[in-house]
């Protein structure tokens, strides 16, 4: 059997997949519907591909690639050229990326992945239980060669050359002050520092947003409650924070998942201020579209 590994994702490693399949199920954040997910091993070069079950037992494959990303409120979504949508993929993508799983088939019987408690810990636990195996194929990485930056008012995101994926981020919320986290993204740091952080939102905006979704018949926060998100009231999170400065850590979790849509691990140092999904995807698109800003190693 090929060796197992949980080393830091890096150039020079072999491509890896899961040692065995795992299944998870739960309610989704925006549609509010129940979803069943099976994540299975896949051959080298397969990448991360979502296979959605449609009516009539038909299936459609949606590769997890930045070119297929579609803007959706408060989540990361991808849509196949045939029009099949899969949404809220960022937590699973971040977990697979942090654990250096390059190839996997994700089968889902709904439009949206489960949100669980709003964190990535359930995905990480499932990946660790399934195990990881390396294959003979080499593992390509995207090495950043020069700085690339995107800005939107006070929001900014910059990537520079580095030997590993490193992130330094800040976020300021009213009544909380400025929050920070910095570090290299490894399986250990991701599981301990980032995965437990939950999706968050202010309760005073939650009810109007849910009403808007029902009135417009759009799938927006229908599954949001205090079991699936960290609810903010004033300067506190109801029930307390799972980890220090939890909101900024969750923004980094999302960033790791959004970067994974590049298709290969990224070797670079990121500096983020008040970033979110739209800015994350803008950076990936700008980086990938700038000739000479990166190379595959």
Task: Please characterize this protein's 3D structure.
This protein has 297 residues and is of the alpha+beta class. It has two domains: 14-138, 2-Layer Sandwich (Ribosomal Protein S5, domain 2); 142-296, lpxc deacetylase, domain 2 (lpxc deacetylase, domain 1). It has helices spanning 90-98, 121-130, 187-194, 203-216, 246-259, 277-289, and strands at 14-18, 22-27, 34-41, 48-53, 59-63, 69-72, 75-79, 85-87, 104-108, 132-138, 142-144, 148-152, 155-161, 166-173, 177-184, 200-202, 230-233, 236-237, 266-273, 294-296. α1 (90-98) packs across α2, α1 (90-98) crosses α5 and α5 runs parallel beside α6. 23% of the residues lie in helices and 35% in strands. The radius of gyration is 18 Å and the shape is globular. It is built from six helices and 20 strands. The longest helix is centred in the C-terminal third of the chain and has 14 residues, at 203-216. A hairpin with a 2-residue loop joins β17 and β18.
Summarize the topology:
Elements: E1 14-18, E2 22-27, E3 34-41, E4 48-53, E5 59-63, E6 69-72, E7 75-79, E8 85-87, H1 90-98, E9 104-108, H2 121-130, E10 132-138, E11 142-144, E12 148-152, E13 155-161, E14 166-173, E15 177-184, H3 187-194, E16 200-202, H4 203-216, E17 230-233, E18 236-237, H5 246-259, E19 266-273, H6 277-289, E20 294-296
Parallel strand pairs: 4-9, 11-19, 14-19, 16-17
Antiparallel strand pairs: 1-10, 2-3, 3-9, 4-5, 6-7, 7-8, 11-20, 12-13, 13-19, 14-15, 17-18
InterPro entries: Ribosomal_Su5_D2-typ_SF, UDP-acyl_GlcNac_deAcase, UDP-acyl_GlcNac_deAcase_C, UDP-acyl_N-AcGlcN_deAcase_N
Family: Belongs to the LpxC family.
Catalytic activity: a UDP-3-O-[(3R)-3-hydroxyacyl]-N-acetyl-alpha-D-glucosamine + H2O = a UDP-3-O-[(3R)-3-hydroxyacyl]-alpha-D-glucosamine + acetate
């Amino acid at each position: 059997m090929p060796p197992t590994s949980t080393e830091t994702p890096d150039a020079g490693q072999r491509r890896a997949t899961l040692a065995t399949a795992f299944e998870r199920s739960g309610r989704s954040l925006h549609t509010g519907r129940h979803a069943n997910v099976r994540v299975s091993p896949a051959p080298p070069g397969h990448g991360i591909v979502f296979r959605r079950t449609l009516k009539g037992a038909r299936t459609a494959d949606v590769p997890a690639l930045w070119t297929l990303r579609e803007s959706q409120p408060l989540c990361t979504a991808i849509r196949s050229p045939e029009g099949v949508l899969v949404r809220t993929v960022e937590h699973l993508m971040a977990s697979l990326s942090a654990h250096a799983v390059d190839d996997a088939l994700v089968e889902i019987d709904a439009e949206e992945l489960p949100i669980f408690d709003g964190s990535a810990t359930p995905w990480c636990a499932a990946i660790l239980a399934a195990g990881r195996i390396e294959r003979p194929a080499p593992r390509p990485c995207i090495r950043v060669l020069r700085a690339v930056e995107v800005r939107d008012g006070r929001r900014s995101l910059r990537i520079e050359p580095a030997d590993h994926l490193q992130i330094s981020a800040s976020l300021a919320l009213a009544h909380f002050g400025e929050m920070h986290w910095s570090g290299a993204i490894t399986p250990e740091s991701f599981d301990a520092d980032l995965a437990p952080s939950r999706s968050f939102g202010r309760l005073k905006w939650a009810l109007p947003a849910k009403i808007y979704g029902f009135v417009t018949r759009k799938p927006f926060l229908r599954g949001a409650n205090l079991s699936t998100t960290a609810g903010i009231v004033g300067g506190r999170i109801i029930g307390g924070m799972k980890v220090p400065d939890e909101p900024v850590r969750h923004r980094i979790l999302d960033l790791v998942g959004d970067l994974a849509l590049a298709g290969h691990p990224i070797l670079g140092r990121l500096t983020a201020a008040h970033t979110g999904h739209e800015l994350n995807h803008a950076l990936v698109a700008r980086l990938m579209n700038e000739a000479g800003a990166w190379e595959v190693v």
